[in-house]
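lol so apparently i was supposed to do this last week
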Amino acid sequence: MARPFASSADLGEKAQTLEVLADGVYALTAEGDPNVGAIEGEDFLVCFEALATPVAAAEWLARLRRHTSKPIRYLVLSHYHAVRVLGASAFDADVIVTHEKTRELIAERGEQDWASEYARMPRLFKEPGSIPGLTWPTATFSERFSIDLGGERGDLVLAYCGRGHTEGDLVAWLPKQRILFAGDLVESQAALYTGDAFHREWSSSTLDRVASFGAQTLVGGRGAVARGGEGVAAAIAQTRDFLDVMLREVGKAHESGGTLKEAFDSTHAVLEPRYGSWPIFEHCLPFNVSRLWDELDGVERPRIWTAERDREVWEQLQS
Ligand SMILES: [Zn+2]
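anyway here it is w/ zinc ion bound
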């Protein structure tokens, strides 16, 4: 029997856990569904990531409101993927911040990405009719963007670490609390999605920069919160290992004149024992291998995923 497309058959609700990581610092994790967060300033809130629809975001905000009633001044979006940005209108934030490349990517491929992600992960799109349209940032930056949280709270620093999961990922760093919100640049016991990635840069200089913060707590894009220096290092190492195995296995097939399907099969065989049980592993791998094959072919920027191209790659590799 053919494997159901992407996560289209994953319809079971995931349990959400709200954790208070430090005074006024919150993370909501959900068994491998996209994570979100919030940081309190003296008299305002910064929210990190927006979920897939305003209805899904409103449920998160209702939980957050049990802890704080401060108004939301900033909504920070780590990258352009639909399941993290299309719920933005629920926040009614004064400022929506992304990396400058993210704005360009939304303009270039936001519509196609929306259709693609909706078909891949329909469960995350709670009441899809509530999405008013694409989400546009109102402030962007290239290297660094600091938000003074006021009082004794220190800064929240938004930083660019190089190309990785996408062309325009940002991380959010709390130097005083040593907490890093890493977006999809790091996953903690969840499979990586690399269909829009720059594998070689991500696995080397970009992850080096992520590691250089010296975080004691790390909230990745999916999966549990990583705690303590060792836990953070393990999450970063797992992310790097996943990428290194892909680079090695797809690289071998590519170099020896093999086929995309052979590259997929050998990568699957090596990754599966370690990562096969982690959320979205089977869903992601065909798209991941397809993009890496392109990268090794010299295709500089990821090709745009459309609902149609998604199905073609799925049929070719995963059926
Ligand atoms: Zn993503």
